[in-house]
Amino acid sequence: MDLKTYPLGKLSEGGLRRFQSSMLREESADPLFKAKKYKDACMNYIKAAALMLRRDLPTNGPFRLPEYARLSANYELTEMLACLNGAAESLLHLRQYKQALWLAAEIEVVIRNVQMESTRWTPYFEWFDFDLPLTEYVYERLRARVTQQRIFRTLGNTGAANERRWHSTTITPREVQTPEMRKIHPHIPNDPIYQLRHPDPKLVASSLTVTDPTLQVLGSWNKVNLQKGAGHLYVLGGEKHQTGPWYRDFWRMDLTALEQWQPLPAYPVPSSVIKELVGYSMVVDGDCAYLFTGRRELDSSVRTSLAADLESWPYPTNDIVDYAMQSVGGKIYVFGGSHKDSVIGCTLLMELDVAARRWTRLSGTAQPKTASYDGPGPRRLACSWVGKDCNTLFVMYGDADRQGARVVGQQHGAYNAYAHDDLWAWDITRRIWDRRRLVGNTPAPRSEMACTYFREELPSTSTVPTT
């Protein structure tokens, strides 16, 4: 993540009054915390935060809140973070991990809202961290990350804990560290904690306990015998290794019999047009399975058209891989992915009306040159699913391959890729993106993950651990 320092905002007269009232309330909470009266301290910290917002703290709801956005990017914001940190640390002492984790995570929601408001005329990509020239601000951000790290490690979520620890290091370079910062986050060269796997077998074997049943499920992985069902399972292409061989064969298994794989006609498009069948996806609509490769043609016999407002095919190289694709309501949706002209990933969301064979561009671009706060940032290898209402397309996580972009000399290149930590929802009817909150014992940011969404409540069976 890149650090970018922003100028301090101005504190309005009304903001000054709220700031002073909140400070008084917070100062009344500090002695209670030191006296280990954590419940009373927590209530006072929360009341102090409410004074800053002129409303109660939101327990969930939309990611973007005007009450957060209007906080000035100065001591007003820092005071808000201090109140949330005090409440979170009080709850941590009370072992109320769910509420403590929510408040500590809410700090980044507040910061992101202030950043979006402060830079609304010149948006910045997600990998630019919102840094202010205030030691107190840096300290409060660090407190929140350290609290989250402690809770995640208590819950056995070593992946999220290590990500928070790594981020704590990136936001506090040595030149800005104070004794208070080093006390809560000591710098450890070659920290062995980063050598852990997630979860690490050495830790899991000795700590299979439930600390908070609202955030954990005690279970274990079991090999499940595949039961007979309906339909067929199809597999097309793939690779054995990055250096090959690459496959173009097509197979299916009859799930009613589960006897053997059946060969189907190989992919007919020559390798001179589609080189390797790797990184693509297929979705089912009706009786057909559709493969998308970045070309307008669904296959050699099915041509498609473009919507009237789409002057040309948006994929410049007629190729896209590592995208997210879903099918619902007779439409196919394709989001993100990378191609030769944008290795970092893209923000393009396309819709195919299967019956009309017509493509429509819904949002984003295949070559994101500038940032936007109106939708997900450029990414590839995200996970996606369609909500229970069949009207919402969800996109979560994925990465922006900044390292790959740097290697080929493209825009936004850097020495490290950026792993997204967000969740977005596309409203199919309203045609608008809405960022959603991720709360609770969340997985660490990642890409290339497996994901599935079960629209009904999972049954309690011997193969689904429930206790």
UniProtKB/TrEMBL annotation:
Keywords associated with the record: Kelch repeat, Repeat
Keyword Signal: no
Xref: Pfam families: Kelch_KLHDC2_KLHL20_DRC7
Superkingdom of origin: Eukaryota
SUPFAM superfamilies: Kelch motif
The protein's name: Kelch repeat protein
Organism in which the protein naturally occurs: Mycena metata
